[in-house]
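Sequence design from tokenized structure. All designs in this work follow the same two-part layout: the structure record, then the generated sequence. An example of the structure record is given first.
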């Protein structure tokens, strides 16, 4: 509704993971390279983790687009980790275009193995891509480990990308999965954006949506308020900016002012701690449940921001060395 008023060709802040909007921060680039080259160079296992809404799925969609164009990579894309082991293998087989019908686990495994080996003999690549991998059960992770046994002395035959929230790291750290953990060739972790990246991110989205003057519509002080309230989490940035555009349009303002951002942050109750999150450190289960809502998500950011700062300090130290 505000598009014509602001001369926009499309909505700049959709929360769908549309790869055409990808803003390549250093971290996102590194993660992209790990996912892409991990598959291309037949590294076997690649793991990408990141807090809720940091851009894991959008990166994955970007990489899958590249694979689709390349023709020599076939992949199965699984984003529902809450399956039984047989359902998982059935899904995997049918996404690779194999008949999965009423087969049992052994038959499914054999069929998948034959398919992967056959492709490898023809110089083709096969990948298993799992988003939301933090939901995978230990049983399915064990099936995946068995599939990763398909190898020659030189290389892995099935490339496996596991993408998920930080709980995935915790799962992979567990004693029962240490065999799988040892096979991970590449690992990346996404963090929220810095304030400079937030500015670049908002401006790029506006540009891609056809905005003629991004810095008029979202002046620097407004973007500073967006960063303050979103703490650099892309999904939250989108939510705040989308609502800001609606509010500014309702007031027929040509430029979004910082107080509009403050109002939206108040409406969304950003920055307000919930009792569940206050006890986050002492109760992992509460934190996991809490991470599922927008409000609770924001409270997690304080921990993330600190980690970000730690990383920056480490990078600074390394640069100074
Ligand atoms: N680097 C980026 N460039 C452009 N858009 C991004 C970027 N990172 C995140 N986004 C946008 O932020 C929103 C959330 O991203 P995405 O769904 O990929 O997060 P996620 O890490 O997969 O979250 P979840 O853990 O909830 O699955 C999407 O609208 C996505 O397009
Ligand atoms: Mg996702």
């Amino acid at each position: 509704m505000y598009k014509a008023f602001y001369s926009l060709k499309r909505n700049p802040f959709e929360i769908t993971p549309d790869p055409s909007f990808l803003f390549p921060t250093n971290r996102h680039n590194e993660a992209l390279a790990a996912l892409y080259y991990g598959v291309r160079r037949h590294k076997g296992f690649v793991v990408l983790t990141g807090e809720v809404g940091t851009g894991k799925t959008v990166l994955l969609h970007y990489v899958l687009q590249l694979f689709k164009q390349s023709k020599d990579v076939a992949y199965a894309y699984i984003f529902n980790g809450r399956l039984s082991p047989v359902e998982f293998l059935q899904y995997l087989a049918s996404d690779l275009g194999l008949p999965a019908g009423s087969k049992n686990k052994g038959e499914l495994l054999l069929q998948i193995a034959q398919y992967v080996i056959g492709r490898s003999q023809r110089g083709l690549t096969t990948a298993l891509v799992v988003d939301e991998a933090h939901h995978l059960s230990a049983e399915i992770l064990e099936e995946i480990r068995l599939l990763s046994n398909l190898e020659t002395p030189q290389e892995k035959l099935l490339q496996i990308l596991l993408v998920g929230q930080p709980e995935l790291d915790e799962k992979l750290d567990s004693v029962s999965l240490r065999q799988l953990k040892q096979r991970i060739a590449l690992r990346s972790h996404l963090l929220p954006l810095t304030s400079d990246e937030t500015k670049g991110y908002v401006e790029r989205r506006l540009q891609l949506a056809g905005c003629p003057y991004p810095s008029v519509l979202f002046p620097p002080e407004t973007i500073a308020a967006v960063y303050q309230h979103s703490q650099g989490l892309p999904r939250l940035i989108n939510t705040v900016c989308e609502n800001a555009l609606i509010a500014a349009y309702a007031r027929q303002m040509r430029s979004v002012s910082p107080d509009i951002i403050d109002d939206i942050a108040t409406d969304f109750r950003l920055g307000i701690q919930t009792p569940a999150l206050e006890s986050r450190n002492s109760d992992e289960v509460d934190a996991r449940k809490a991470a599922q809502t927008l409000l609770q998500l924001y409270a997690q950011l304080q921990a993330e921001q600190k980690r970000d700062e730690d990383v920056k300090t480490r990078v600074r130290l390394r640069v100074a060395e």
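Residues 275-320 form one domain. We note this feature because it recurs in several other targets discussed in the main text.
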